[in-house]
Each structure stands twice: as C-alpha cells, then as structure tokens.
Amino acid sequence: MKQLKIYCISDTHQRHRELTDRLNDGGDILIHAGDFTNYGGRFSQKVGGIDDFNEWLGTLPFKHKVLIFGNHERVLSEDKDVTKIKQRFSNATYLNDECVEIDGLKVFGSSWKVDHGNNRDRLWATVPIGAHIVVTHNPPDGKQEAIDIDKSLMRRILQVKPVLTIFGHIHVDYGVWERDGVTFVNAAMMNDHQKTLNDPIGFRLEITDDKTVKLDRL
Questions:
Q1: Residue 94, Cα to own-chain centre: how many angstroms?
Q2: In Å, what is the CA distance from 195 to each residue of 11, 83, 110?
Q3: Mind telling me which SUPFAM superfamilies this protein's record contains (predicted)?
C-alpha cells in the first residue's frame, strides 16, 4: 500500500508567490491546471512572469510538479517546439494531451481547448481509459447551473471515471464536489471578489496492493 499527498492549484495569474507559505509543507505531487500568467492573446518574451513561475516551482518541496496551459497561455501552447517548452518549464512536467505515470498514478493533462464545435468529442477522445487523474483548464462541470461547462469533456470524464478531475478557469466556482462517482476539483486560486487567494486543495490518495485508489480530502 502506498499513500500520496497531492495539492491542486490553478489560475494564479502571476500571484503564485502569495501561495508559498501555504505550500511549504510539501507533498508528493503539485498540480497546476493553467492560467499562471496574465498574458492573454499577447505574449512578450520581455515579461519575466514565466521564468519567475518556473523558479518558484523549483523552490516548493514537492517530489513532482505537473503543469498544463490555460487560455492565458494559449500563445505558448501554439508553439510546436515541445522540447523548447519543456526546457523552459524545467521544474515541472508539462503535459498536453499526454499521460505520465507518477508513483503508480496515471496522470493525464490537456491544455486549454478553444471551441471546435462538432470536433470536441474527437479532441477529448485523447483522455485515456485508466487515467486516475485528469487535468484540464476547461471545466467539465460546475457547482452552479449558470457555469459555462465543456459538455464534450464531461461526457468523456464519465466514460473514463478518473479518481480526480482537476481544472480551473471559472474563478467563482472554486471548490470540490462529487458527481456520478467522480470527484471534481475547481482549483482556481484567484477569486474575483477577494483580494486574498483561495487555499490550495489537498488530497491523500491511497493506492492499495490491488491497484485500487482511495481518496481523502486533506
């Protein structure tokens, strides 16, 4: 049996260093679900936010850090030189429509997807059956009925049935809830109505000898 401590954050928008004290206890895996910058559609290499973010990740006492891009990093995600991207984010594992195994957990990550109409089901077919954790910036579900969710992604999540689905984007929908046997985590740290960032969301995952994964909130 193995126990892993995981923390989830998203939508830090260049305020990541405000979370340092709240992450100093560390853990096994830190997951950032995108929007760590404020760049939007215009990206300047002169802005030091990206390098500062990578340096900050390197200071945190987590064995593994996993990262995807949000809509504010969409210009970065258009860069086809994946090797260059991964070199720039040297203190994390950057995932884009790919899966990595960490200490027995299969973690799938996919960066921000713009609306492709009828092709969305095909886009999300990349989420593999057997993934324990799925990380996207697009929200597949929401606590509030008015939230604009990605219904194609939700259909795929309910097929895959991961233990955890982690995302962000909708700042006001921060929190954890369960639906149809899946735990959904909107880890948006930025709250549009607060000056103080939300708290990182933590879990303890227990992997049993028969590969069953059990989940508890920290």
A1: 10
A2: 14, 36, 29
A3: Metallo-dependent phosphatases
Residue 183 · residue 165 · CB < 8 Å: yes
- Residues with Cβ within 8 Å of residue 188, at least 6 apart in sequence: 10, 11, 168, 169, 170, 171, 173, 174, 198
Per CATH, the number for 2-217 is 3.60.21.10
pLDDT digits (tens, 9 = 90+) for 162-182: 999 999 999 999 999 999 999
Between the alpha carbon of residue 31 and those of residues 11, 89, 199, 215, the distances in Å are 12, 14, 14, 16
Contact call for residues 175 and 144 (beta carbons, < 8 A): no
Rounded CA separation 82/109 (Å): 14
pLDDT band for 46, please (50, 70, 90 cuts): very low
pLDDT tens by residue, 84-127: 888 889 999 999 999 999 999 999 999 998 765 667 788 899 99
Secondary structure class of 100 (helix, strand, coil): strand
